[in-house]
Each structure stands twice: as C-alpha cells, then as structure tokens.
Amino acid sequence: MVRPLDVAAALEKRGYPAGLTESATFEIRDSLIFGNCGRYHLEVARSRGNISQIEQVVEAPARMEIGTFASLFTGHASARALWRAGLLHGEEKMIDRLQRIFCGAAPWMPDRF
C-alpha cells in the first residue's frame, strides 16, 4: 500500500521514461492531507518531472482521488485502466498524456520472506 504524503515532492523525485517530452494537468482530492489537494501541471523532459500547482485552469484537467493517484504513480494501474474503471475522470487526450507519462513495467516483488 502506498499513501503519498507530498504529491509535488513525489512527482519531482520520480523517474520518467527516457526520451519522453510531455505535460499533463490534473486535479487531486485528498480528504486527509489538504496540502495534496489542488491542480497540478507536470512537465516531463529528460527523465525528470517539473511540477507546479496552478490555480487557474489552462486546460481541462484530469481529476482523481489520492488513492487513484497512488495506483497511477506506482504503476499498479495504467491511466487507461483507471479511466475505464471510472476512477480517473477527464478528456481522452489528457488520459493519453497520463498514460505516456506513467507507463512502465508492472511493479512486482518476490514473495519469499
């Protein structure tokens, strides 16, 4: 289980696909940590993310709860899968951007303790 405590810091510290230049705008709702709530604009270039919290809507943002964001952020579920499940809301072009930004191999861990 993952619970992001600082969305902006997590996004800036995460790695992104090599060679990808993309941006996406999304809104997160978090009922426990008010500082995570808001609209974010993520720009990815050279495998690094630059995040800014925006007040004015430049383009229609994707919208999600913090748990949905955690699944997307970790790669547990793709943007497309979350959108089809009704957990990620927004225009298809923004969902496609999130799909490209957060793509990657499915997370795994050997189960031998």
Write the layout of secondary structure elements.
Layout lengths: L6 H7 L8 E8 L8 E8 L2 E7 L7 E4 H9 L4 H6 L7 H10 L12
Parallel strand pairs: 1-4
Antiparallel strand pairs: 1-2, 2-3
Structural key phrases:
alpha+beta; four-stranded mixed beta sheet; Nonspecific Lipid-transfer Protein, Chain A; 113 residues; 28% helix; 4 helices
What does this 3D model show about the protein?
This protein has 113 residues and is α+β, with helices and mostly antiparallel strands. The chain has a single domain (7-101), classed as SCP2 sterol-binding domain (Nonspecific Lipid-transfer Protein, Chain A), CATH 3.30.1050. The protein has helices at 7-13, 66-74, 79-84, 92-101; strands at 22-29, 38-45, 48-54, 62-65. The chain has a 4-stranded mixed sheet.
Structure annotation, total helices: 4
Helix content, binned percent: 25-40%
**Sheet of most strands:** 4 strands, mixed
The beta-strand count equals 4
Over the alpha carbons, how many angstroms does the gyration radius reach?
A: 14 Å
Please tell me what the overall shape is: globular
CATH superfamily: SCP2 sterol-binding domain
Q: N-to-C SSE series?
A: HEEEEHHH
Low-confidence stretches: none
Computed structural class: alpha+beta
Q: Which architecture name does CATH use?
A: 2-Layer Sandwich
Please, what is the average pLDDT?
Answer: 91
CATH topology (fold) name: Nonspecific Lipid-transfer Protein, Chain A
> Which CATH top level class fits?
Alpha Beta
Number of separate structural domains: 1
Strand line-up in the sheet with most strands: 3-2-1-4
Strand content: 15-25%
| Distance between the amino and carboxyl termini | 17 Å
